Amino acid sequence: GKRNIYGDKLAVLAQLEVVYDDGEMMTVGSDGSWKTSMGPRVAAEFYDGEAYDASLAEGSCSEENWKPVEELEFPKAKLLSPEGPPIRKIETLKPQKIWKSPSDKVIVDFGQNLVGGVRLRVSGPKGHQITLTHTEVLENDEVATRPLRDCKAIDTITLSGDAIEWEPKFTFHGFRYVQVENWPLNDGIPLASGLEAVVIHTDMEATGSFKCSEPMVNQLQNNIRWGMRGNFVGIPTDCPQRDERLGWTGDIQVFAPTANFLYDTSGMLSSWLKDVSLEQIQDFNGVVPQVVPNVIDPRLNTPQAVWGDVSIITPWTMYNSFGDKKFLTNQYPSMQAWLDAIPRGPDKLWDPNTHQLGDWLDPSAPPSEPANGKTDPHFVANAYLVHVTELMVKIATLLNQPASEIDKYTQDAAHLKQAFQNTYITPTGRLSPDTQTSLSLALSFSLFASPTQATAASSRLARLAATSRFRIATGFAGTPLILPSLSSTGHVQEAYRMLLETGCPSWLYTVSMGATTMWERWDSMLPPGAINPGEMTSFNHYALGSVGAWLHSVVGGLSLSASASELTFAPVPGGTVTWAKAKYREVSCKWEIEGSVFKMVVCVPPNKGAVVRVPGGKEERVGSGRWEFETAYEGKEWPPKEILDPFAMYDDVERPKA
Residue ranges of the Bacterial alpha-L-rhamnosidase N-terminal domain (predicted)? Predict the structure, then answer.
């Protein structure tokens, strides 16, 4: 990464406000008269951890211990208050288990992969040093530090002889397990009462919830929520534990629809999107950096579809989630700059010589080559290019941009779609490449030339799901779209079958392996409990949790869209799910199947209208209030059949005897 991005000197700008009993306030601003002295936090590093010496906590009033400060020129940048809420301590978790590992190390399990730090209460001899090592998982019953790469994630506490209560203030860790070394009491094993994990994240209002009759799906939903909490610490990051913790643009682009349902992200993501614009326009001639704030090697900031498309897709997502056009107005120059900056080939699609990350972390990609999946990366890039250009037509129209501008984007979108069809789609609707991701992109983005082609493609996608034994074969780009692509084209049971699959790779495989957050890879942990050998193996990465949007809208039946004039309640039952409920603020939808009867209750807030669709029934429009619906229901065949390779050796399928 880069250093000294914003200057080469660390400084503080402070204002101390003293309020007296009579209400009068005295303000003291930092200036050259202030003095400085060493405190007990003798070292603090974002990745490596904090060092604390309790013997320095009292400080000293002796003049010789205080040094003059250097007064620096005031920075020319404008100071702005953040639009989002601050980072706060949200809750604490008690240890679930404390034991000694095979190597005689003391390990504490907090039962949940979280982000924050450990608060401890302890006393011991002066100079005695305790070490805390934080990890997300175990391997061979020991803390697994390899996924941290060069990040140490170690806090050290030096005791003073008195009892202390301590927690880190200038670092945080992503962890479930903590290895405690040199605890001064109880034969080196701390009591549960002496430790607790402090959970931190940006203090957003929780707004949405989902629950259904399947416990493993509920755990998946819980994992999605915890994964979001751990990666919304000031900015939307990819992961919170290793030597990265960066604002990767592609991750939030695919996850934002889910995030916006679970929490009110409007302030935090509004601020972050402004940073996207500043980095993109001021420093990179319209190219959106892959991470914002941009702290990585400049050579990595090449134009990337999916990642750069955050500048158009995420403001549109924010508008649809929160109904405020300011997200579009504020980011419109950024959107235009990105489309202008994309390197093009002769047909105006992406320049085929650009390097693309494509369907990142497709499970078929080798561990060391995460971009080398089944789907041509330029197919992914060009599908997204057509999509974002069509979004620009909608956005420009909504913002009343000049007719000439709207016409330009309309013509560009039509030309790009035709070029895409000429390049990738046969007259019968077959795609090249022919993968779960390619079909999901083409169906979700309406890239086919005719309904007949789209119908053939949806049938092909359902067949690919069956031949994969309903195991997922998508990476970051395809994962948000595969279940919507199936359920919206009549293949509801296939979508539910993929959701409920527990083999690797699948959403519920991670749950079956004890995950409490979403993983970076479908197989971050391999079936025996070994960690994937790939360099990038995070156990707290929300991108694959983008399925949450489908859970809320299709299983839960609750869709929120500012581009539609009304709320929509349209649950689509399937699989073995017999009831589900989704809630967003005052809006809620709950349904259940009793025998051959489908029952649903919806709540519409004041001054709102809603469209209600029950399975097999007519569409109804209702006003505010509580509404009950009941209709006859007959489920489709379950489970949909797998299509097995007669020559494959399946561990879980009995082969017929010769």
Answer: 2-90
Contact indicator for 393, 408 with CB cutoff of 8 Å: no
Tokens of 307: 């990642």
Q: Is residue 192 within 8 Å of 479, Cβ to Cβ?
A: no
Burial of 561 (0-12, 13-18, 19+ CB in 10 A): middle
List the catalytic residues.
244, 520
Strand segments, DSSP code E, in 82-153 are 87-93, 97-100, 106-122, 129-135, 138-139, 142-143
Q: What is the pLDDT of residue 654?
A: 58
- Please compute, for residue 451, the number of CA atoms within 13 A of its CA located in the half-sphere on the CB side: 1
97: left (phi > 0), else alpha (psi -120 to 50), else beta? beta
Neighbouring C-beta atoms of residue 170, cutoff 10 Å: 11
Bond into 433 cis (ω within 30): yes
Please state the pTM of the whole predicted model. Answer: 0.96
Mean pLDDT of 298-321: 93
Residue with tokens 């957003």: 204
Query: What is the set of domains in the chain, with CATH numbers?
Result: 208-559 (1.50.10.10)
- Which position has the higher pLDDT, 302 or 153? 153
**DSSP per-residue letters across 257-317:** HHHHHHB--HHHHHHHHHHHHHIIIIISTTPPPSBSS--S-GGG----TTTTTHHHHHHHH
Residue 542's closest CA among 181, 265, 255, 257? 255
Find all residues with CB under 8 Å of 8, minimum gap 6, and list them: none
- Yes or no: say if 513 and 580 are a contact pair by the CB < 8 Å rule: no
Q: Give the span between the Cα atoms of 233 and 203, in whole angstroms.
A: 9
Q: What are phi and psi of 197, to 5 degrees?
A: -90, 135
Structural contact between residues 322 and 441, judged by C-beta atoms closer than 8 angstroms: no
CA–CA separation, 256 vs 313, rounded Å? 9
Separation CA 546–CA 398 (nearest Å): 27
Average pLDDT for the chain: 95
Q: What single-letter amino acid sits at 462?
A: A
Query: Is 212 within 8 Å of 218 (Cβ atoms)?
Result: yes
Q: Among candidates 459, 451, 516, which has minimal Cα distance to 491?
A: 459
Q: What is the pLDDT of residues 344-382, one digit of tens each?
A: 999 999 999 999 999 999 999 999 999 999 999 999 999
pLDDT for the residue numbered 64 = 79
* CA angle centred on 574, ends 573 and 576, rounded to 5°: 115
Q: Are 230 and 201 in contact (CB under 8 A)?
A: yes
Q: How far apart are CA 320 and CA 326, in angstroms?
A: 12
- Helix (H/G/I), strand (E/B), else coil: 67: strand
In this model, does residue 327 exceed pLDDT 80?
Answer: yes
pLDDT digits (tens, 9 = 90+) for 197-252: 999 999 999 999 999 999 999 999 999 999 999 999 999 999 999 999 999 999 99
Residue 291 corresponds to which tokens in the numbers above?
């991470």
Helix (H) or strand (E) holding 491, with range, is none
Residue in the block written with tokens 């669709």: 613
Predicted pLDDT of residue 384: 99
- Judged by DSSP in three states, 65 sits in helix
Residue showing tokens 């751990």: 230
Write the Ramachandran bin of 341: left for phi over 0, alpha for psi from -120 to 50, otherwise beta.
alpha
**Strand 106-122 with 195-202, pairing:** antiparallel
Distance CA 570, CA 557 (A): 5
Per DSSP (E only), the strands in 418-543 are none
- Are the CB atoms for 308 and 288 separated by under 8 Å? yes
